Amino acid sequence: MLEIGFLPSILCDIFSTEAYTLQGVAKYIDYHEDVITHIIIGKNLSPSLILVKRLTELHRSIRPELYQAIMKKIFMKYE
């Protein structure tokens, strides 16, 4: 999933909400801003699992309706 631009897409979506800046995301996930920039530009294609987890958690907190819709679709498929 990382090769197809999953994390850059998540980061762009986070920034599009204007809820967080680059500095805010860096502070929230406790990583340097350069690490986030390298993910966005495709220089870092294999970030740590902790970083992926923290970014996903941040995205989930900003877009809970998206994750609820995904879960609803999954449940509907397997009912």
Could you please describe the fold and organization of this structure?
- With 79 residues, the protein is mainly alpha-helical.
- 71% of the residues lie in helices and 0% in strands.
- It contains five helices and no strands.
- Helix 1 (6-16) packs across helix 3 (33-41), helix 1 packs parallel to helix 4 (49-62) and helix 2 (22-29) crosses helix 3.
- It is globular.
Walk me through the topology:
Layout: H1 6-16, H2 22-29, H3 33-41, H4 49-62, H5 64-77
Helix pairs in contact: 1-3, 1-4, 2-3
Keywords:
79 residues; 5 helices; mainly alpha; single chain
Offer a concise description of the structure.
The protein has 79 residues and is mainly alpha-helical. The protein is built from five helices and no strands. 71% of the residues lie in helices and 0% in strands.
What's the N-to-C terminus distance? Answer: 26 Å
Q: Could you report the average pLDDT, rounded to the nearest whole number?
A: 92
Q: Pairing-aware structural class of the strands and helices?
A: mainly alpha
Number of strands: 0
Largest sheet: none
Low-confidence stretches: none
Per DSSP, what share of the residues sits in E-state strands of 2 or more residues? under 5%
Helical proportion, percent range: over 70%
